[in-house]
Each structure stands twice: as structure tokens, then as C-alpha cells.
Write a structure and sequence with these properties.
Length: about 900
């Protein structure tokens, strides 16, 4: 009989922490904690295999029933209570838990097993009817929403559930502020109202029978794997749908039991800054859902230290043990029931990029990790946050209000009040700040496109905060002065009214909110960051260069550790306003002498550009790509522009218009561009080469070492490269000879067409290096225009027909296969052939790994991605070592 169930508790467990695929992260770690002797309430986990079956057939396997019954009996022995027993009932929670943590995206039901009979038993054995009915009303409302499908009335406008509305009405009726002040009679009355509401809305009665409740809940949790917010989250984080969720059934412990009871969440270190020391929140006389749902603003964890120092010390000790054991910062959920501490969950804590770096480096200092372990703890994509801007301290405006600093970084944007609006406005290019009373997991699609998130309620561990940190979005929660009026689309702070569309600035590192636009300054990197990058550079084999067209970009990239320029595009130099006229003159010239005359005007300007870039890179290699775009891009398009260009050049408008139309191409992407231009007009590359060579000489004279690499784009036949290389060398060598200087320079090509890969051996005969231009290569391998793919590619991705956007993550199966051919053929002909990549992929971690595996010499990416590529290269090297490569 297949085994569907793994038990844990009472100092032992069937499962282990490395079985997250089978037991979900939550179930696997509960098992691990139980084996470690940490106090966890006993329970059992139903495997993800059942989820897969449920997904396929819509039902549960028959054999599961007996296994669940047996496990419940075992739990009864462990706790001394029986499930469904009216005298002294065992209550359970039914918890979701995917292999990859998806905080709050799926459902959990607490206090299951209560009905009109068992609630009385609970009241008698505890001597606390108020407590018993508090559990009962919680259970009925959760069951109604999650299992029976009672919906909130207004899903988008911050609507409340009907149960919350009845609760609010009861509070108003009895003139109390806090649900903790409701007595047993009031709570019992609520339970009755809730049941009526369920019947009214679903036409089905609330099930009184505990076993029926349990199966209903188990199925509902399996179903929650498919809910829309879980889908969105999976898509965003690239989580495979087929993984499924596990379901954990666990004996309840009660944070709402009395004054010495509480529920809380804590991180073993500060998840925003990485500072050591417990960081968390709790609510007295509450169940855990109250904390994570951000319904009431919780108290800091210090409140436990003040009130119950021993329990606090125990928690600190357990947290340290868990950290040591998992060798990572943990995010734990706990409950104190009448002075007894119970752990309910532990997992690796989500953290800001800054905290990620600090924790990894600190843990090496503490001897928990070694340098390699620290690198393995770094998510390269999150490093970008460390380089995020902050508000300029010198011109820091007066804050409008302040909340909790839930996720660091500064954000500026227009205020919107719903996830839908956020999406709509973001689509038309507006930066938006999503403002909500509290965010629910349903808002995730809006949080994803927002530049920042601001909520009036919730805490540091509310779902809004956790999700925002995970996405690296600046976020401020619990801005309690904020009154959000979702209906009128505005919020107020005292007398100040902020309407939809108004601009505000958030500082997620301090929790401050500012009216209008604050001045931002770019981030400065911490000492820990430098330490980490030192380790990274020792481990990686790939060099990391940058794509930079200007001296300013080149300097930024060097500060981030770039080891050269892998792609310097020259066309922007042509577009500068004071040059475009000369460029147009060149294009419109009737013959070669005319073109040469115009190019002569451009030459000194290009020479200055290159000189500055050589200076900025000071001795590091600089790859300069000769002119690439089709000429029509430099010409005016509208009649007005044509007229004004004609006037500037002293030509007739119809002459200019005729030239424009003669350059028109049906498909410019595949047209007269790249080296094909130089085949027709040799003087263009000759001029550019001369400018590079002269700049190199000037740099040398100024004492700056130079390593120029001239790159010829869009080559498809060996003959193109052979001819153009000869011309480039002739000009370069002549400049050197005239000056009597010797200088090494390279001439290579950008490999960006499938044919170039396939004839890589013959192209390599004329090339000192290959630089894979994977943007164009992806377009041409897929027959997919990047500019037009927006019409259908999103549907492919949303529907799961495609896993990844090939323009973002290098498509190893297709484009990668061609790259491999190109590398093999190239190196077969020339062993020492230098190989790099200069498409957008050069800064994307999985693509960087591909380049490492294929034996590239370097990757090149935009300046801000340089540290990301360095870390990705180091991680690839470590993984390769682990695989013995
Ligand atoms: P999520 O994945 O949304 O965090 P959980 O399954 O962790 O969902 O449950 C949410 C909260 O419910 C937990 O933080 C915990 O406080 C509470 N909870 C779950 N199971 C129990 C239990 N057996 N006893 C007491 N509280 C529980
Ligand atoms: Mg949890
Ligand atoms: Mg290209």
C-alpha cells in the first residue's frame, strides 16, 4: 500500500527536512524540529503525491482514509485527547505547505473538530467557556470562507468578509473595541449568526460532524493549490505547478487560551537589515492567523521578554539552535499556551538584499558557514537591491507620516488604491505606489507592478511585508495615521488629503512617507558587500565585463567590479545632437568623396569619445562595436522633420524625402545593417577604426594602458569578416606605423546569426574573438521579433506554453545549442579563441551559468548587473565543482 502519511511529534518523526518535495517545506521542517527535540504539537503530513492525484482525478485515494484514521488515533495517544470526543475533544489545524515557500498564498484552517457538543466539552475541561466559543467562532468563519466558499462581498475594494462584518456589528452593539472583550454569550451568538450566514449563502449547512469537517478541510487545502493568487505567485517565482502542496494535520495549541498565551512570528535576525538578534511580533490572547493576516497591529517580541522572561529565553535558545542546524536565518512561528512554548513552523527567512548579504557574511564570522556556503546563500537577483537608491539625506523633506520599515529602498510613484489600477497604470508607464488599508494575498498582481507598497495596518511580518521583501519592493506597513478611503480613492493623514494619481515617496528603510517627489541618491555598498564580493572573485572563473557606451557608464561599472567593456556601441555617438547633422550629410551624400568629407567631421568627435572610455577603463580591455543599425534610423521620418533637416543641410525637402524613401526597408532587422553597411560603404568602418587607433595613441601618450578590441557585427559569411578585418587592420596598422608605436589590438566578431554559429570554424580563421550577441541570435533562431513579441509572448508565458521568456533567460535548448556549435567550431579552428557574451543575458544568473559550463572567457552586462553576474559566475563555479566539472 502506498504511504501517504508521515507522522511527527513527541520527539520523533517519520520525515526529514530534506524531504520538502514530498512533505512540503512546512511538513518537512516540522518533522525535523520534532526529531531535534523541539516542542512541536504532534501531527501528520499528507504527501504532495496525493496533491498530484487530487489534481488529476479531483478525488483522494481510497487508501488515504485508513491511514488518516490511524494517524488521528496516534495523535490522540500523544495528546491524551480524542478527535470528535465530546468530553475532551482533540482539535486540529489543517495546514497547506508547498515544497517552495509561498507565504499566505494557500489556506490553513484552525480549531477544526468543534461543534455544538465538543465546544461544551472544551469549555468544561478548560473551565473557560469564553475561550471555547472564541475558538468556535474562529473555526466556523474560517471553515465558511475556505471550505464552503463564502466570499467577501467586494473582492477588490478592500471588502470585508461577511463574518468580519457580523463581528464588527457585534462589537458595535456591545460598545467594545476589541474582540478580546466579547464574552462567551456574545461569541456563542456570533457562531449561530455565522452558521445562518453560511446556510444563506451556500444553501448548505455547516457540517457538525468532525470527520466530515476534516475531509472537507483536507480537500479544500489541496484545492487551494489552484487558487488564482497561488497561480500568480508561482508564475512570478517560476514555481512548477506540478509540485503540488502537502497537507499537514496538527494538534492545536492555543495562543488565545488566556492572559499568559500568545501567538507570534519571529525572525532569528532582522530581515530588513540583517542585524543579529530576535526580531518579531506577537499578539497576546490571539491565534497565529491574527498576526500573519495583519488584522491587528501586533506588539514587538520584546513584550514577551518583559512579561515572560523564561519563555523568551527559551525562544531565543530554540531560535539559535534552529539557525545553527539549518545554517541559515530562520523565520519561525510560535505559540505560547499558558506559559508553554510551542514551535509551529520554521523556514529560511525571506529577507532584503541587504540582510541577505549581511547575514551570509556574519555567519561566516560566527563559524556557521564557510565562504562557499555564504555564496550559496546569495540570490544573485536580489543583489540589485543592495545597489538601490535611498533618499538624499541633505534634502530630506518633512515626512507626512511614518509606519514600519517593512522592506527597504526608496520608491516614488503615483498613488493607486487597487491592484487592478496598479496594473493598468503601470502598463502605460506610470510608476505607482499601491496604497491599501492592508494588502491581502489577492493583491499580489498589483504589488508585482508597483514601485512601492504602503499599508495602514499590518506589521513587519504581515503578508504585505513578507511578499514585498521577497520581491525587493520598498514597503511601509502599519502607517496607522493613514485613513484609506477605498471607495473615494483617496487617503487622509489628519487634514492632508492624497488623491489617486498624486505623487508620494516612500522610504522602506525608515518607514517614512513623503508628499511629492524626494531626491534620491544611489546606494553605497556596505563593507559586508565588499567582503562577500572578495570571496566571489576568488571562486569564479568567468570574467565579468560591462556593456557601456559612455565614460560615465564605464566608471559606474568599474566601481561595481567590471573587468573591461564587452560591448561599447558606437551609434549613440552618432545620435548626439551636434553630430547627427554630419551623419545625415554622410548618408545623403551622392558619392564616396561626399561621404568621406562628412565622416571627417565625425572623426574627431568619435576619437574624443574613445579616449574618454579608454581613460575610464585604464588598461582593461575595451570591445568597440563598429556601426550596426540601418542608416534610415538616422534620418527624419515626418514631413516637418524632413523639411527642417533639408533646411539645415541646404537641400530641397523632396531630395531628403527621396533619400528617406530609398532607404526604406521592409524588414530592417534583417536588412542593410551591421557589417553589410561596411561592405557597401567601407569608409564608415575606416573612419571609426582610425578614431579608435588615434584615441589609443593619445591614451598611451597620456600614460593610460589600452587594450582595444574591434568588433564587427552581424557577420554571416567568413568572407565578410576576412575582407573587413583586412581593411580595419590596414587603417589601424598605418596609424601605429605613422606614429612609430607598437600596440596589440584584437579584431573579432559578434556572433548573432545562426549561420555564423554553423560556420564558426571558418569565421574563426579571421577572428581573435567571438562575442555572442544573444539578443539578435534569439530573434533569428526563434524567428521572433523582440519588438513585436509583446502581442503574443505574454499569452504563451501565462498559459504555460513557454516556461521562460527567451529574451530574459537564454534558451539553452535552442539558442544554447547553436551557441555550443559556434563555440566548438570556433575553438576547433583556434584553440585560444576568446569567447564572450554581450546580450542582455550576460547579467542573468541562469544564462551566466550556461556560459560558465560552455567554457566562455567572459560575460558582459549592464553596469548595475555586474555584481549579479560576478555572484552568478561564482555560484556556477561552485556547482560545477560539486558536479566534478
Ligand atoms: P501559512 O502558510 O499561511 O503561514 P500556517 O499553516 O503556517 O499558514 O498557519 C498560519 C498560522 O496558524 C500559523 O502561524 C500558526 O500560528 C497558526 N497555526 C497553525 N497550526 C496551528 C496549530 N496546530 N496550533 C496553533 N496554531 C496553529
Ligand atoms: Mg505559516
Ligand atoms: Mg545585434
Amino acid at each position: 500500500m502506498p504511504r501517504y502519511i508521515y507522522k511527527f511529534g513527541a520527539g520523533q518523526a517519520d520525515g526529514r527536512s530534506d524531504q520538502a518535495l514530498l512533505l512540503g517545506g512546512k511538513g518537512a521542517n516540522l518533522a525535523e524540529m520534532a526529531s531535534l527535540g523541539v516542542t512541536v504539537p504532534p501531527g501528520f503530513t499528507i504527501t504532495t503525491e496525493v496533491s498530484a492525484q487530487f489534481d488529476e482525478s479531483g478525488g483522494l485515494p481510497e487508501a488515504l482514509r485508513g491511514q488518516v484514521t490511524a494517524a488521528l488515533e496516534w495523535m490522540g495517544e500523544a495528546t491524551g485527547r480524542r478527535f470528535g470526543n465530546a468530553e475532551d475533544p482533540l482539535l486540529v489545524s489543517v495546514r497547506s505547505g508547498a515544497p517552495v515557500s509561498m507565504p499566505g498564498m494557500m489556506d490553513t484552517i484552525l480549531d477544526l473538530g468543534l461543534n455544538d457538543a465538543t465546544v461544551e466539552g472544551l469549555a468544561r475541561t478548560t473551565g473557560d467557556p469564553r475561550f471555547a466559543y472564541d475558538c468556535y467562532r474562529r473555526f466556523v468563519s474560517m471553515y465558511g470562507e475556505i471550505v464552503m466558499g463564502v466570499k467577501t462581498d467586494d473582492e477588490h475594494g478592500g471588502g470585508e468578509s461577511p463574518f468580519d462584518r457580523l463581528l464588527a456589528a457585534k462589537l458595535a452593539e456591545l460598545k467594545v473595541d476589541d474582540e478580546r472583550e466579547l464574552d462567551a454569550a456574545a461569541l456563542r451568538a456570533l457562531v449561530t449568526q455565522f452558521k445562518i450566514e453560511i446556510l444563506r449563502r451556500t444553501s448548505r449547512p455547516f457540517p457538525e460532524e468532525p470527520t466530515a469537517q476534516l475531509w472537507g478541510a483536507i480537500e479544500a487545502v489541496f484545492r487551494s493549490w489552484e487558487n488564482p493568487r497561488a497561480e500568480v505567485y508561482r508564475r512570478m517565482h517560476g514555481i512548477d505547478r506540478s509540485l503540488g502542496t502537502a497537507v499537514t494535520v496538527q494538534a492545536m495549541v492555543f495562543g488565545n487560551r488566556g492572559p499568559d498565551s500568545c501567538s507570534g512570528v519571529c525572525f532569528t535576525r532582522n530581515p530588513a537589515t540583517g542585524e543579529p538578534g530576535l526580531f518579531g511580533e506577537l499578539l497576546w490572547r490571539a491565534q497565529g492567523e491574527d498576526v500573519v493576516a495583519g488584522v491587528r497591529t501586533p506588539e514587538p517580541i520584546e513584550s514577551l521578554r518583559n512579561r515572560m522572561p523564561q519563555v523568551y529565553a527559551e525562544l531565543v535558545e530554540l531560535c539559535q539552535r534552529l539557525e545553527q542546524h539549518f545554517a541559515d536565518m530562520q523565520d519561525v512561528e510560535f505559540t505560547v499556551e499558558e506559559g508553554h512554548l510551542w514551535m509551529l513552523q520554521t523556514r529560511s527567512g525571506k529577507r532584503s538584499g541587504k540582510a541577505m548579504v549581511r547575514v551570509a557574511v556574519d555567519m561566516v564570522g560566527e563559524g556557521v558557514l564557510d565562504a562557499h556556503g555564504a555564496i550559496e546563500r546569495i540570490d544573485p537577483d536580489k543583489l540589485g537591491e543592495v545597489m538601490h537608491s535611498t533618499i538624499d539625506p541633505d534634502s530630506r523633506p518633512q515626512a507626512l507620516t511614518k509606519g514600519l520599515p517593512a522592506s527597504p529602498g526608496a520608491a516614488i510613484g503615483r498613488v493607486v488604491f487597487s491592484a487592478e489600477q496598479a496594473e493598468e497604470w503601470a502598463k502605460r508607464g506610470d510608476a505607482v505606489i499601491l496604497v491599501r488599508t492592508e494588502t491581502s494575498p489577492e493583491d499580489i498582481h498589483g504589488m508585482k507592478v508597483a514601485s512601492g507598497i504602503l499599508t495602514a495596518r499590518g506589521g513587519m511580518t504581515s503578508h504585505a511585508a513578507v511578499v514585498a521583501r521577497g520581491m525587493g519592493r520598498p514597503c511601509v506597513t502599519a502607517a496607522t495615521d493613514l485613513r484609506v478611503d477605498h471607495a473615494r480613492e483617496r487617503f487622509t493623514v489628519g487634514k492632508v488629503v492624497v488623491a489617486k494619481g498624486d505623487v508620494i515617496t516612500l522610504d522602506g528603510s525608515t518607514g517614512e512617507v513623503f508628499l511629492g517627489r524626494a531626491t534620491l541618491v544611489p546606494a553605497s555598498m556596505s563593507e559586508e558587500f565588499q567582503t562577500l564580493m572578495g570571496w566571489v572573485d576568488e571562486v569564479r572563473r568567468l570574467r565579468v565585463r560591462t556593456n557601456a557606451d559612455t565614460p560615465a557608464d564605464a566608471r559606474t561599472a568599474r566601481a561595481f567590479g567590471a573587468e573591461g567593456i564587452g560591448l561599447c556601441r558606437t551609434e549613440h555617438m552618432f545620435f548626439a545632437p551636434e553630430r547627427i547633422l554630419a551623419v545625415r550629410e554622410m548618408i545623403l551624400a551622392a558619392d564616396e568623396p561626399g561621404r568621406r568629407a562628412a565622416l571627417a567631421k565625425i572623426l574627431p568627435m568619435q576619437r574624443d569619445d574613445f579616449l574618454e572610455i579608454f581613460r575610464a577603463m585604464d588598461g582593461l580591455p575595451v570591445t568597440i562595436r563598429l556601426l550596426d543599425p540601418p542608416l534610415h534610423e538616422f534620418l527624419p521620418a515626418t514631413p516637418q522633420d524632413i523639411a527642417s533637416v533639408a533646411a539645415d543641410l541646404g537641400k530641397r525637402p523632396d531630395e531628403v524625402a527621396a533619400a528617406v524613401s530609398s532607404l526604406h526597408e521592409q524588414n530592417p532587422m534583417l536588412g542593410h545593417r551591421g557589417c553589410r553597411l561596411a561592405m557597401s560603404y567601407p569608409e564608415i568602418y575606416e573612419t571609426q577604426t582610425r578614431a579608435i587607433a588615434e584615441a589609443a595613441l593619445l591614451a598611451l601618450q597620456a600614460g593610460v594602458a589600452v587594450e582595444p578590441e574591434i568588433m564587427i557585427p552581424f557577420v554571416s559569411t567568413p568572407s565578410e569578416l576576412s575582407l573587413l578585418r583586412e581593411r580595419v587592420c590596414r587603417v589601424f596598422d598605418k596609424v601605429l606605423a605613422d606614429a612609430g608605436v607598437e600596440l596589440e589590438y584584437l579584431v573579432g566578431t559578434m556572433i548573432e546569426l545562426p549561420r555564423a554559429c554553423l560556420v564558426g570554424d571558418r569565421i574563426a580563421e579571421h577572428a581573435d574573438f567571438f562575442s555572442f550577441g544573444t539578443n539578435d541570435l534569439t530573434q533569428t533562431v526563434w524567428g521572433l521579433s523582440r519588438d513585436d513579441s509583446g502581442r503574443f509572448l505574454p499569452t504563451y508565458l501565462d498559459s504555460g506554453w513557454l516556461d521562460r521568456d527567451p529574451f530574459v533567460v537564454l534558451d539553452r535548448a535552442g539558442v544554447g545549442a547553436l551557441v555550443r556549435i559556434g563555440v566548438e567550431k570556433g575553438r576547433a579552428r583556434k584553440t585560444k579563441l576568446k569567447i564572450g557574451i554581450c546580450g542582455e543575458h550576460g547579467g542573468e544568473p541562469s544564462s551566466v551559468e550556461f556560459c560558465h559550463v560552455e567554457g566562455f572567457d567572459y560575460v558582459s552586462c549592464s553596469p548595475f548587473r555586474v555584481p549579479i553576474a560576478r555572484v552568478a559566475a561564482a555560484r556556477a563555479a561552485l556547482r560545477g565543482e560539486a558536479r566534478g566539472k
